[in-house]
Amino acid sequence: MSMSFSFQVEATQGAARAGRMITPHGEVETPVFMPVGTVATVKGIPQDLLEELGVQILLNNTYHLYLRPGVEQIRKLGGTHKFMSWDRSILTDSGGFQVFSLSELRKVTEEGVSFRSHLDGSSHLFSPESAMASQIGIGADIIMAFDECTEYPAERTRTERSMELTLRWAERSKNAFEAHKHEVPWFAERGKKSQALFGIVQGGMFPNLRKESAERTVEIGFPGYALGGFSVGEPREKTAELVANTVPLLPENKPRYLMGVGYPEEIVQYARMGIDMMDCVLPTRAARHGLLFTSEGRLTIKNQRFASDEGPLDPNCSCKVCKRYSRAYLRHLYASNEVLAQVLNTTHNLSYYLDTMRRVRQAIILGENSVSLPVVRSPHLSAT
Amino acid sequence: MSMSFSFQVEATQGAARAGRMITPHGEVETPVFMPVGTVATVKGIPQDLLEELGVQILLNNTYHLYLRPGVEQIRKLGGTHKFMSWDRSILTDSGGFQVFSLSELRKVTEEGVSFRSHLDGSSHLFSPESAMASQIGIGADIIMAFDECTEYPAERTRTERSMELTLRWAERSKNAFEAHKHEVPWFAERGKKSQALFGIVQGGMFPNLRKESAERTVEIGFPGYALGGFSVGEPREKTAELVANTVPLLPENKPRYLMGVGYPEEIVQYARMGIDMMDCVLPTRAARHGLLFTSEGRLTIKNQRFASDEGPLDPNCSCKVCKRYSRAYLRHLYASNEVLAQVLNTTHNLSYYLDTMRRVRQAIILGENSVSLPVVRSPHLSAT
Fold this sequence. Notes:
The structure is a homodimer. Chain A is built from 14 helices and 16 strands. By secondary structure, the first copy, chain A, is an alpha/beta fold. Chain A has two domains: 6-279, Queuine tRNA-ribosyltransferase-like (TIM Barrel); 287-380, no CATH class. In chain A, the strands form four sheets. In chain A, strands 4-14-13-12-11-10-6-5 form an eight-stranded parallel β-sheet. Chain A has a three-stranded antiparallel β-sheet with strand order 1-2-3. In chain A, strands 7-8-9 form a three-stranded antiparallel β-sheet. In chain A, strand 12, helix 9 and strand 13 (256-258) form a beta-alpha-beta unit. The first copy, chain A, starts with 5 loop residues before the first strand and ends in a 19-residue tail after the last helix.
């Protein structure tokens, strides 16, 4: 059996690292922003266009695929890579976060989380064991331990109890994964390679609990570590402080994944702190609402002032949308509620995010000082 | 001033012709199926993909663009080619048909048609003169005379009165066009070329009126002729009979355009009768409803029987959808109400229509007998 997963740091610049992951479906250069393909599609974007944009890894959501078309269906079809015809890397979340945020009726016990489907109200249970079974059946390259995402705000005792539960679930996740990892649909055809299971650090907004969670998760031992429980409503200064404190507690030779982040200036900021992987629905969801990220700040394309604007969306962007269409046309498509608005807006926003990450990576490799990392203008934070 | 518009018949096979139109924005091989890009977008399909599909000419709807973003807006932006970033040929309808079918409150007088916008209820008047002004401002390569599309069913006296009105409007359309054709936005930059104004034959379901309309429209004189007033609810045998009777009355050296047609087997049938141009929302609209045209008949992709089907949509199709994705995946996208379903379904249906027309053209050029024109299987007519 050859190595299923590897990660190499190739250059550093302060805390920031440029690295390279190798998964059973190819290489991923880090730091990397991973587009979200909820139900095995990045909304509105064909797979060949994702390739053209340089996407090396994308997300699928276990909760959604579990409900539709179902894990056994995907397994029968050879796993999610074959199902969605995407031969590069894929990561799945554990389903835990989605259950917390989407299900009205959920109940957490030591065993796991019982919940009702947002589609038809049917009853289901996710546990560390079932989350592993689902993620193995779906067959992404990187899968996540089943955790409890602590709500915000939460008291310290509640947060600690939640963290302890996540640690017990991490052990159970690892045990279940080790027992069944050979059941991934592409095990034989990929030279008996298996998936990589990442652990998740919780601990809410308490630095000491974050520290304890990090140390004890590392003790269990995973090929990569995620920081979970952020983007739950806390102030972004809090996130930044906790991430900065936690990163040094994680092994240098393993990838670090900050879940559910963020705005363009945030993904740059966290890459500087030594985060290697990030994902967020923001570029794709914002695109659907006509909110576009550019080198000149963000803009809301439905604004009347773009109706006669013959210029490109972003004069400094070389994506196919900026090279071909005017703001006036994009504004017209959005105002007319045309599907092409979503397709083109999403194409640009993804291009902007991926390009931002590539420039960060390049700066790290060239050893440029941190000031020369891409500057993301403040309008991102204020203007709409 | 060089020639603005030309049409050459390059080969014939029975009544069918293979020809070539040259417009100020390039060549169009006929017979041709023209995708409908209502508000300057073929719903969900980026322009580079239309180019890849081999689209040489597409439609814009004057009514829709007149209301949003407005003719003066498009003129200011250089015309619809620049506006939508499409440098190949475009045809606009006159707005007449849309007014008849979309406006609740319309009133026809000798002057024109007054109507209320379906968007905001505002009052407007379309006349031959204003329809020419709108179409010149939008700046398609081929524009249409303003006509009255006679409703179905209609009595003979009513149909004759309507036909006479259309003939008077045809004269007025031509006069207005000749007086203002140099005002097209790209007049100077395209070497003082202007648009081509086509006449429209009406006459309802009465062969004698169709004949009279054809003869008197030809007498007025246009560089191309359309058959209007079909696809209004009449039986398709009736359409076929009237088209077959009318085509021989039109000049051999001018393109013939059958408006608003049709199913795959119909576009083949009408090309055989000597029709050179057709347009229809069917391939794009059907795609949005999951109805897909294939060499094996048509299929409704949401059907449960496709949930585990790993085969391509159409094993005989070489479009990028059929080459990459399985029916199971397309079914999943449709069942999940994903935008990518519309993008991929539309891509395939357009590819199927364009490919069908290319094969018809090839058969005419090779002088194959009519039996060897592409056979479109009967399931198109029955199964869903």
